[in-house]
Amino acid sequence: MRLDKFLKVSRLIKRRPVAKEVADKGRIKINGKIAKSSSDVKFGDLIEIRFGNKIVEVSVLELKEFTRKEDADKMYKILSETRITAETEL
């Protein structure tokens, strides 16, 4: 499944164009490598997403084409959420 579609379906990012933009700016890594929006996501992959001043790391548990809002969080497991500051980036 494409990265941008996974992010939308799992509701980690609410809209697919936003997911594409974030990925194409180099703010998402899959298994430690910078990923494009068209990158393939597989079961067990580790995805790291940088949202402004926060980095969220998740593990992929399920791949579904469609999901209900209540079941979306079952597609991934949050491994860590880290707040970053200007000093942390350096």
Automatic annotation (TrEMBL):
All copies of domain RNA-binding S4, residue ranges: 1-64
Residue ranges the record marks as coiled coil: none
Database matches in PROSITE patterns: S4
Family annotation (Pfam families): S4
UniProt keyword list: Protein biosynthesis, RNA-binding, rRNA-binding, tRNA-binding
Family: Belongs to the RqcP family.
Function of the protein: Key component of the ribosome quality control system (RQC), a ribosome-associated complex that mediates the extraction of incompletely synthesized nascent chains from stalled ribosomes and their subsequent degradation. RqcH recruits Ala-charged tRNA, and with RqcP directs the elongation of stalled nascent chains on 50S ribosomal subunits, leading to non-templated C-terminal alanine extensions (Ala tail). The Ala tail promotes nascent chain degradation. RqcP is associated with the translocation-like movement of the peptidyl-tRNA from the A-site into the P-site.
Assembly and interaction partners: Associates with stalled 50S ribosomal subunits. Binds to RqcH, 23S rRNA and the P-site tRNA. Does not require RqcH for association with 50S subunits.
Protein name (database record): RQC P-site tRNA stabilizing factor
Protein's organism: Lactococcus ileimucosae
